Amino acid sequence: QVQLVESGGGLVQVGGSLRLSCAASRSMSSIDVMAWYRQAPGKQRDLVAGITSAGRTNYADSVKGRFTISRDNAKSTVYLQMNDLKFEDTAGYYCGGVVAMKRYWGQGTQVTVSS
Fold first, then answer.
1. What totals of helices (H) and strands (E) does the chain contain, helices first?
2. Cα(38)–Cα(95) distance, rounded to whole angstroms?
3. Tell me, what's the pLDDT at 80?
4. Pairing of β 10-13 and β 102-105
């Protein structure tokens, strides 16, 4: 089992940046995959970026070149650096972790991009 707590969301202007954090209740080395998802009102929850325990990353096409996922094993924290934010990035952002083929979710943090 793992508890995940997100932080760092907020209101930002188009073209701005935000960094989201996801703190895990257990060592990163024991979590197979950590990922960020987002969900806009009325839409499904989609993968934004993921990072494996080996450090391999993957990104949704819509965020490649703008978002970067990283992790700090010492702090058991995963980050999502979001640059050049666009209106369409507005959503609830959720941290997900997979341990022994079971997925756990954080409570989410809202990101709103405005003009």
1. 0, 11
2. 9
3. 98
4. unpaired
Q: Kind and range of the H or E element at 111?
A: strand 109-114
Q: DSSP code of 30?
A: G
Residue 10 DSSP SS3: strand
The strand pairing partners of 6, in sequence order, are 22
What is the pLDDT at residue 60? 98
- End-to-end Cα spacing for the chain: 40
61: left (phi over 0), alpha (psi -120 to 50) or beta: alpha
* 71-106 pLDDT, tens digit each: 998 999 999 999 999 999 999 999 999 999 999 999
- Mean pLDDT (whole number) for 46-51: 97
